[in-house]
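Usage

Read records sequentially. Each one opens with the input sequence:
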Amino acid sequence: MRRIIISAAAVLMAGFVTAMVPTVVMAAAAAWPKGDGDLNNGKKIFTEGKGTVPACNSCHGPEGLGDDNMGTPRIAGQFYTFLHKQLEDYASDKRTDTTMFIMNANAKGLTEQDRKDVATYLASLRKKGDIKTASGKIGPSDLEELKAAGIAVGLPHKGKSLVYWGGNDKGIPACYSCHGFNGMGAPPIFPMIGQQRYVYLVNQLKKWRDGSRANDTKGAMQAVARKMSDEDINNAAAYLATTSFYSDGNLHTAYDPAH
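and closes with the structure output:
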C-alpha cells in the first residue's frame, strides 16, 4: 500500500510540473522585447520600402533571413531593442554600413516612428523552432555550399569550444557569457547571434577587430575581437551559424513564443 501511495504522489507531482511548463515558457517568452510600433507600417516598409528607401527584403530576403552572397544579416526574429538601436545608430552615423553602403541613407530616409515600426515588425517574426536550410541543416547558412564557393569556413566543433569556454590562452571570453545559450541572445542588450548568417558573423567580428565598427556598448566587442585570429573568427562563426537553440531532449527555449 505504501508503495502505491508513493507512486500516486509521484504521478501527481509529475502532472503538476508538466502543467507548469507552458506557464513558465510563456512568462519567459514575454521577456523578449517586441516593441510597440505599428506592425502594418513596419511590414509595408519591409516589403515595399518608403520614398527613396528600398524594401528591406530586397537585401535581407523575403523572410528577413539575410543573404550570404550579399553579406547581409538575418534580422527576422531579433529582439526589438537591438534592432531599434542599430537603426538609430545608422541614422545618427554612430554605425557605418560597410557592407551594402546604404543603411545610413536608408535609416535617415525613415522617420523615428518608421524605424520603431520596422524594428517592431522584424521582432514579431520570431517563431518557435530552429531556422533550417533547404537541405534540412540548422541555420540559414549552408556551410558546405559556402566552401564550394571558395569561402573560408571554420570548424564548428572548435567554434563550440570558443562559444562556451572562450580561449583562455588568449584571454578570449566565452560568447555564452553575454549572448546566452548557443547565442540565442540576452535582451535587452546582447543580441541573438546564433543562427545568424555565417558571412555576416565573420565580417562583423573582423570589423570589430579593426575598429571599422565601433557602436558596441563600452567597446566590449572590439576588445574581444582584437584577441581573435582569423581562424578563431571562422570557427566561432561556423558554430554559431549552425547551432540549435534547443538542448537535447528540450522542446522549449526560454524565449519561445507562447504559440
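Summary fields computed downstream for this record:
- The radius of gyration is 20 Å.
- Residues 1-30 form one domain.
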